[in-house]
Design goal:
120 residues; 1 helix
Length: 120
């Protein structure tokens, strides 16, 4: 820092001047590069961390009695789905104003399932 002759107060160097020296410019770049390398390393390490945690994260709720076997979009709102409940298969229509259970499907032998149809 240079002293101002009239007041004796030290004058601060102006920003962007060469008074800071070349070391400050190089330090800023080294800091930026080190930060960039650390971020890339964390991204790559998180990939391997997620692979280790995947079996725990992807556990879905397993149910033995109820499952959607197949689903087909009729239009943008409505879908028709085949569901399996226990040993029976049923047909449902979802979307639109309300959801409708269409009934139980016959099995491969051509007989209706052993459970009674629900009352309408």
């Amino acid at each position: 820092m240079d002293a101002v002759p009239a007041t004796g107060v030290l004058a601060a160097p102006q920003a962007g001047s060469l008074a800071h020296g070349a070391g400050t410019f190089g330090t800023a770049w080294l800091t930026w590069i080190a930060s960039f390398v650390i971020v890339i390393a964390l991204i790559l390490l998180s990939r391997y961390g997620l692979q280790l945690l995947e079996p725990y994260l992807s556990r879905r709720r397993q149910t033995r009695h109820l499952a959607v076997v197949e689903s087909l979009a009729i239009d943008q709102r409505r879908r028709i789905s085949i569901i399996k409940c226990g040993g029976k298969k049923g047909l449902i229509l979802t979307g639109g104003g309300n959801d409708v259970f269409l009934g139980w499907m016959e099995d491969e032998a051509g007989t209706a399932s052993s459970f009674d149809n629900p009352p309408d």
